[in-house]
Amino acid sequence: MNHQPLPRPGFASRTALPTMPASQAEMLERLDALLPGMEERAARLDEEGGLPGEDVAVLGAAGMLAAPLPRALGGLGWGSEPGGAAPLMRALRRIGRASLPLGRLFEGHVNALRLVAAYGTPEQAEEAAADAWAGRLFGVWAAEVPERGLVLEEGMRRLRGGKIWCSGAGLVERALVPARAPDGVRMLLLPLPVGTGRADLSVWTASGMRASATGNVDFGGMEVGPGALIGPPETYFAQPGFSGGAWRFLAVHLGGIEAVVEALRRHLAATGRGGDPHQQARLGLALAEAETARLWVQEAARLAEGPEAGDPEAPDDAGGEAAARIVAYVDLARGAVERAGLAALELAQRSIGLGAFLRPAPVERIARDLATYLRQPGPDRALTSAAQHALARTDAVGDLWGR
């Protein structure tokens, strides 16, 4: 199959069709050139129901939406092949630094493509690759209200229910969703043509991440085609990918933390307050928090995407043990990055003072977005699960993670 970009209505007219650079470095250089525009639009789109459609089109035109694909499908193998974790971390971090809402959407796009490539048939992977080349945004939507959750019924041909808090609900054209079926939880990849009216963005009233196009999506009555099922039952929860993959949203968090600290540094330089030793101390502590987060995310990415990940189908004494170690470490990283983010926020707000809470100061918006995005599900479970892993081991604390 020729994995060159395929035109779709509206895409070719908005921007040039993408080409894939030969090197990871060139792709990251392309991204760097786009970041100022993303940062400017992030401020402009900070409103309920904000749709970063232009940013998605820009990413598509640069080849960024296809970069996570395996090289066999024309991508750069970001995160899924040897050497792909480091450039993916840098991309997620840089996009998050410019726009946390956009970083959230790109991370979901990466997650969906990885799942299709890992568990889909060759035909499904090729179709997803063609869609990514064509600039279609993918997303993974799992949150739901139990009594109104997504159910696959009528001989696994029709859906009932929906999903909540779907980031990119106004922009995602390919949604990967887990649904309850007679044989277990199944992954479905569903087409969502823009403008179908299934998304309700009015329910997203959070103070931050307002430009993430988040809303509820009703899939009730949607017919499921024969090629929609991705992988066998319970594939969505396969470890270490399910929990270990959290390192990717931590990389976006890291970008937000660095943006907060950068805003503090610029404020001190612009106001001439950088000579105050108390302000220097706060900036120093904030820099340390950002670096702490970076080191945690870097190591989490190395473990989750390296050979230590093993085979999720391997017996417990082989791949299973490696998976447990990876999940425990990434769970710890979740707590460490959250604490670093909250500490950096407090230091920046205390240092800047009231101005940190006044619009249109960039730090005010970034702080709202970061505080909202840091609220990931199950933080206590992640921490106690990692502790349980350590309690069950006899290795020295310094050797728990196989280094």
TrEMBL record:
One of its GO terms (molecular function) is flavin adenine dinucleotide binding. Gene3D superfamilies: Acyl-CoA dehydrogenase/oxidase, N-terminal domain, Butyryl-CoA Dehydrogenase, subunit A, domain 2, Butyryl-CoA Dehydrogenase, subunit A, domain 3. It comes from the Bacteria. Coiled coil: none annotated. The keyword ATP-binding does not apply. Residues 39-128 form the Acyl-CoA dehydrogenase/oxidase N-terminal domain. GO terms for biological process: fatty acid beta-oxidation using acyl-CoA dehydrogenase. One of its GO terms (cellular component) is cytoplasm. It holds the Pfam family Acyl-CoA_dh_N. SUPFAM superfamilies: Acyl-CoA dehydrogenase C-terminal domain-like, Acyl-CoA dehydrogenase NM domain-like. Keywords: Oxidoreductase. This is Acyl-CoA dehydrogenase. The lineage of its organism: Bacteria, Pseudomonadati, Pseudomonadota, Alphaproteobacteria, Acetobacterales.
